[in-house]
Amino acid sequence: MSNVVVIGTQWGDEGKGKIVDLLTEEAGLIVRFQGGNNAGHTLVVGEETFILHLIPSGILHAEKICLIGNGVVVDPEVFCRELDGLSNRGIDVRPERLVVSPKTHLIMPYHRLLDKLREEKRTGEKIGTTGRGIGPCYEDKVSRIGIRAGDFLQPDLLRRKISMALVEKNALLKHHYGVEELSVDAVLQMVAEPGQRLSAYLGDVSEHLALADKQGKSVLFEGAQGTHLDIDHGTYPFVTSSNTVAGNASAGAGCSPRLLGTIMGIVKAYTTRVGSGPFPTELTDSTGDYLQQKGGEFGATTGRKRRCGWLDLALLRESIRLNGVQEIVLTKLDVLSGLDRIALCTGYVLADRTLRHPPQGEGQLGQVRPVYENVNGWSEDISGARCWDDLPHAAREYVLRIEKELHTPVSIISVGSNRTQTIDRRRIAK
Ligand code: GDP
Ligand code: IMO
Ligand code: MG
């Protein structure tokens, strides 16, 4: 397999984890390049389910190397909890096969606190963040007062940096939010143990990637969140705090953009969103409930119900363009079984103008009216389909229509959460 970048094309939870786990078989190294434990990637193998927040979704394959790149934000406590959870289930998580860049910024206790306080106090519509401290951590990175994983190897530097960061944090905590200040000692005590454990995993991620290139081993870049949650290109301000698009894979992993290879966009066969923000094809009726229940659409990180709606081709056109998606992986097609009629959003109307792409102005996506075209549904359960010919005619038509509208081939179709519930059109004749 060539190198592959896996990214979400919608608002996250497209099934990236399942697909990364699946493709890991053909890869040598798997690297996360952005986001943090706001992500929740679900892997189902046989009877077992794993939800990963931080550790790359390649970890279940014993002989593969998993890397956490500099663009990720790491909560040391969550990292350790995830290590223990996996190790208790017999997964090898030794530093020999799991490497964290010393340049990753760390989510500190005050980041989690500020994330929650800010959401509580926010006037107007809340963002609906995951409350994991992601935004405040990325803010400190850009403000150049962030704490990095490698700082644990230099205790004096670590103390100095925390002390410096706390000057502003304490002013905010005390005067703006009216809560107790934090002392340097208290913060150091909270992070000491997980920080020490994390130190054992530090290594030069960039060098691992360069070596893989030299040795001809393929690299799988695992995106988190989705294109429309991207800090620049998403539905600002209802976005996450990192660039989720494929272009960030090189900066966030620490390698040349020449190494990125094939860009695979994961597309859920309908649309979901957790948290606030515009969602033109949202269904607040019984069909929305049907998708939510049949698709088991609960956030893998926060347990919140996901909002559900029809597939939005305008949104996807933008994702294909922004990421340069070369292959689509269509997931959760099985969830659409049992609907007589399926609607496809082919574009929008905004103030009498017809649009094929989302409007660029802030908030305008909340003002569009979706234009729908109905297509035939199918009643058959397709979760046992393993090749193209196993799919009912209407399901095949749905896939072909998506390919045609987006000018991009659908190379893999997923019909269930299990690793095996997959139709791989890269190998099987169409
Ligand atoms: P991610 O964040 O993109 O990795 O996606 P999540 O794991 O948060 O959410 C996807 C959910 O759908 C998980 O519960 C998966 O187990 C499940 N899933 C993935 N692919 C399929 C599929 O093709 N069909 C069904 N029914 N469930 C799927
Ligand atoms: P995966 O990788 C779905 C959403 C949150 C909120 C917004 C900002 O599993 O697809 P943040 O905590 O990042 O500051 O929250 O982004 N969000 C996700 N939604 N899937 C995710 O990750 C998400 N990560 C963040 O719900 O609306
Ligand atoms: Mg998820």
Describe the structure.
The chain is α/β, with parallel strands linked by helices and 430 residues long. The chain has three domains: 4-101 and 202-263, Adenylosuccinate Synthetase, subunit A, domain 1 (Adenylosuccinate Synthetase, Chain A, domain 1), CATH 3.40.440; 105-198, Adenylosuccinate Synthetase, subunit A, domain 2 (Orthogonal Bundle); 266-429, Adenylosuccinate Synthetase, subunit A, domain 3 (Adenylosuccinate Synthetase, Chain A, domain 3), CATH 3.90.170.10. The chain is 31% helix and 19% strand. The protein is built from eleven helices and 19 strands. A hairpin with a 2-residue loop joins strand 15 and strand 16. Helix 2 crosses helix 6 and helix 3 crosses helix 4. It is globular, with a radius of gyration of 22 Å. It starts with a strand and ends in a 6-residue tail after the last strand.
Helix content: 25-40%
Instruction: Please work out how many helical segments DSSP would assign.
Output: 11
- Specify the CATH class of the largest domain: Alpha Beta
Q: Briefly note the structural class of the backbone.
A: alpha/beta
